[in-house]
Amino acid sequence: MPYDVFISHSSSDKLVAEAVCGRLESAGVRCWIAPRNINPGEAWSAAILRGIESCRLMVLVFSDDANQSAHVRREVAHACDHELIVIPLRIREAIPRGDLQYYLNELHWLDALTPPLEKHLEALTARVTHLLSGDRVTLAETSVPKSKLRPARHRLPPLVLLIALSAIALVVSLATISLWIFSTHNVSQTLASPATEAVESGTPIPEIVLRDGIHVSIAKQQVLLNDADLGLRAMPAAGIAMIENGPGRVRLLLGAGNKTYLLEGPDLGHLNALPRLVLEPGEPGTFDNGAANVFAVVKSGSTFYAFYQASDSEGVSGTTVAGYSGFYLSIGLAESDDDGDTWVKKGQIIKCAKPKEWAATPKQGGRGIGWAGGLADTSGKHFYVYYTDLSTPHTPLGQINVARCSLDDGPPLPGNWKKYYEGAFTEPGIGGQDSPIIDLYSAGHSGAWYGRPTYAKFMGKYIMVFEVNQPREWEAGMAPQISGIYLAVSDDLIKWSEQFKLVSSYAQRVMGKSIVVAPTIVFDQDDKASGWLTYGYSPKYTSEALLNLGTPTYLVGRRITFEKENH
After folding, report:
1. How many other C-beta atoms can be found within 10 angstroms of the C-beta atom of residue 50?
2. What is the rounded distance in angstroms from the CA atom of residue 319 to the CA atom of residue 17?
3. CATH 3.40.50.10140: which residues of the chain?
4. How many CB atoms sit inside 10 A of residue 135's CB?
5. In CATH, what class is 5-148?
6. What is the pLDDT of residues 114-172, one digit of tens each?
7. The domain 191-195+204-564 is classified under which CATH number: 2.115.10.20, 2.30.40.10, 3.40.640.10, 2.60.40.10?
8. What is the mean pLDDT of residues 544-557?
9. Does the reported pTM lie above 0.70?
10. How would DSSP label each residue in 425-487?
């Protein structure tokens, strides 16, 4: 199979190399990267030579580690021998030495020394796609010559070039805006329009009025747990799951990184007890070998059940726009008989109909089902889990689905769950088919994620908060007019009302963007009409592995109040 770009890198720079691969492949560039493209049983050196010879360009992720790597030196030499164009992407302050100095001395460079990495990946992608199309003149102006690797004085390009580039940028911007308006027109008709349109990332909508006359107001964002507070990072990974919520004491489970912790405090704004690890990834070969993040806790009798998002990170190709390697999500169950202090895993309860090897596109990194929420209905006879199906060719951005366990048939163990499909709970939880209950793709190519339901006793209805992701907004650098956190209402947990926007923000983990993820509503008490809208937030998102490029998500909240209209 022919490829476009061979990505050469030291194993120490694996995460950056995978981010490069993911960004290039998102632009339709076919990449060869080790070890992903090495066939089982194939000798490493033979695979590398095969990969280089099948490509037209090489991107070298350059650092001190690359300088010292014999493998990288041989890869660059072989690329030059076969007359490949080599594009060095410098991610550390380093100067080529030895053989690399010989091969790279006259080449133009791209520097990626300052955050955010995404900005440099955009420049790299532009350069690669232009070179592959045969346009080499424009790109030379965006590169950094070898002689300029040391701190340098920047010079302006000629005035004529500036005018030409400005004109091209204007045309491209107008075309992008036109495409975005055309593609999102329908979804803007489906999603209920707020009284005042929010245009800044993270901006709350001043006032929302539900169809039954209930006013919803949102206060300013407050930090509940800052990045690295209590030693926690990248949280909430899947929302928060309340165990106890009483006057003067709260206890909850919170996913941070790839593990789940028990937190306590007098209230959500003062989670001050030292976190205790209660759930972590499984052994290699298990369905949760990559992560175990609890997203909901329900109680039946004296037993607590925790539903958690399980991640299988073994053998999944592709890379996400957040820089993570591929993963396959499913839903696991843990239970506690000691008031939530300790938890025992009980197995996988809900799994996608598609295996982890299946992908909607060759570049798809995130697969399976996850980004979930759960609750018990008011009768106490059914448990529900709402999830997003990522492995579907029909709605590739993912929509919200639901599975149910009837406690009359036994506890919520593996085998006792049914997925909702074409109007009824008939399909098995493990591998069955499903039908979305909230589907925004057909209306405007938006995704619906993180469906987090709860019961609003004062309304006598269920409410769900969830995310809407419109990727064309963050791809084009436009304000999140559609993306953000929304609310819907239901009487039966199946039919949901139109959607009301609560917060405007990008809703997908994208490197360098301001984002919100995993919203949850926690009422002050069961019968109260006020509480917290909590979610993960980052002003400039990055993964835990690339901390110098930004900030992982941390727990924030806004006070939310529901008030009945007086007549």
Report:
1. 16
2. 10
3. 5-148
4. 11
5. alpha beta
6. 777 878 898 899 889 888 886 433 333 333 333 333 333 333 344 443 444 444 444 43
7. 2.115.10.20
8. 84
9. no
10. EEEETBT-----SB--HHHHS-EEEEEEEEEETTTTEEEEEEEEE-HHHHHHT---SS-EEEE
